[in-house]
Design goal:
The complex is a heterodimer.
Chain A lengths: L1 E6 L17 E6 L5 E5 L1 H4 L5 H11 L4 E3 L5 H9 L3 E3 L6 H9 L16
Parallel strand pairs in A: 1-4, 4-5
Antiparallel strand pairs in A: 1-2, 2-3
Helix pairs in contact in A: 2-3
Chain B lengths: L1 E5 L7 H11 L4 E5 L7 H5 L2 E15 L9 H5 L5 E4 L2 E4 L9 H5 L5 E16 L2 E8 L7 H9 L6 E5 L6 H7 L4 E6 L3 H17 L3 E6 L7 H9 L3 E5 L3 H8 L4 H4 L2 H18 L9
Parallel strand pairs in B: 1-8, 1-9, 2-7, 2-8, 9-10, 10-11
Antiparallel strand pairs in B: 3-6, 4-5, 6-7
Classes of the chains: A alpha/beta, B alpha/beta.
Chain lengths: ~120, ~290
């Protein structure tokens, strides 16, 4: 299964980026093989608007079924929901820790956005 | 003739100048409140609203039965107002800037005309002055199209005074573009000067003649006047930092009615602007 984790850096030892739409990187990790792919999110970091929507589209295209991040706003959440991606929120620590927590089923999934929309 | 009363910094006295000038020229002008995000002319003129019109803007409405999820609409939208995920198309109305690009690029004609309410335009008369005001819908972020509707509502032959929003961003440009004169209301403080310089920069780009009113003129320092001299900006009126003026304003009263000596001053301000507009060769860019 592929999961997406927002990250400050390009590898599994990086800290989780608490932001979703404007996260520095998003790592798409195969939880079975632990292989991962790096999405450089620079284009959304500096997006005028709609960063969350675009980031959600990108991880859907990458085949992620779960997103693990800190905060997720309403537009991003709506897009993720349409793509059938579950959202685990309030995530912190390193990406590797988060993958372990996911495999052990210690993730809190949310049913609504957990951050206000931002202008 | 269209005069736009603008400022850069907020709270310098745009509405005070616009309403008092309009009342002084009663019978000769229409007053437009183009500060649609917080219109306040009505607090002073109390217009009786005779007509109201809802203003809407285009947003895409996806006809799902025609859509093939090709994503051309999502790719062209720089505001990310459309997202395609799998076989679902999501529209985010509040992000849409109504350019219509999605409709143009859709090969399946799957995008129909939807609409989003921007706000209302209201017509009335207050204190004998015809007033048109815009009021943006709470939660709406896009003011310029509503401002353009307020401006379009004015009789193009008559004299129009526009109470513009503060700042230098898109709503201000919408309230200044194509007018005959911009009257900048400022105050002699560092903050007033800072924002005045930005606003004058915008007016220069739009190539519109400009003059100043200095409000609370006997406070602060001399730097606004030095700037005006340097930039060759005429100072057309100075309003002192006077307790009676402040109290009149605070009660929602008109200076020209409670302190009648000001009526001639505001008439003279209008005539000076008129003279400058007549002396300026026409042919500026249309709105």
């Amino acid at each position: 299964m592929k999961i997406a984790v927002t990250s400050m850096g390009r590898d599994l030892t990086s800290a989780v980026d608490p932001r979703f739409g404007r996260a520095a990187y998003i790592l798409i990790i195969d939880t079975d093989t632990k292989d991962f792919k790096v999405i450089d999110n620079a284009v959304n970091v500096s997006a005028f608007k709609g960063a969350g929507i675009q980031a959600a589209t990108m991880i859907a295209e990458a085949g992620a079924e779960v997103l693990l991040t800190g905060y997720c706003g309403p537009n991003a959440f709506q897009t993720l929901e349409a793509a059938g991606i579950k959202v685990g929120s309030d995530i912190s620590g390193t990406v590797a820790d988060v993958v372990v927590a996911f495999v052990e089923g210690k993730i809190n999934y949310i049913a609504t956005a957990n951050a206000e929309g931002h202008w | 003739m269209i005069i736009s009363v603008a400022s850069g910094k907020g709270g310098t006295g745009k509405t005070t100048v616009a309403t008092n000038m309009a009342i002084s020229m009663k019978g000769e002008c229409t007053l437009l409140d183009c500060d649609v995000e917080e219109p306040n002319v009505h607090l002073f003129l109390h217009p009786l609203i005779e007509r109201s019109e809802t203003v809407t803007t285009f947003i895409p409405e996806v006809v799902e039965s025609r859509c093939t999820w090709c994503r051309k609409c999502a790719d062209i939208c720089r505001f990310r107002a459309i997202a395609v995920v799998g076989k679902k198309v999501l529209v985010f109305p509040e992000l849409c800037h109504s350019c219509g690009g999605c409709q143009v690029v859709c090969p399946e004609q799957a995008i129909a005309d939807g609409s989003r309410e921007l706000g209302v335009v209201e017509w009335g008369t207050g204190a004998g002055v015809p007033v048109v005001q815009g009021r943006i819908r709470v939660g709406e972020a896009m003011a310029p199209p509503l401002i353009r509707k307020v401006r379009a509502a004015a009789d193009s032959d008559g004299t129009v005074i526009i109470d513009a929003p503060p700042g230098t961003s898109c709503p201000v440009i919408a309230a200044m573009r194509g007018v005959d004169f911009v009257l900048m209301v400022t105050e002699p403080t560092p903050f007033g000067l800072h924002d005045l310089e930005l606003a004058v920069g915008a007016v220069r780009l739009l190539d519109i003649p400009c003059g100043l009113v200095i409000n609370r003129a006997d406070m602060g320092d001399d730097r606004v006047r030095q700037y005006a001299r340097r930039e060759d900006l005429p100072i057309l009126m100075e309003i002192p930092f006077d307790r009676r003026i402040a109290e009149t304003y605070s009660r929602g009263g008109m200076i020209v009615e409670e302190m009648p000596e000001w009526k001639e001053k505001f008439k003279s301000l209008f005539r000076q602007i008129e003279g400058r507009v007549k002396a300026t060769p026409r042919g500026r860019t249309a709105q």
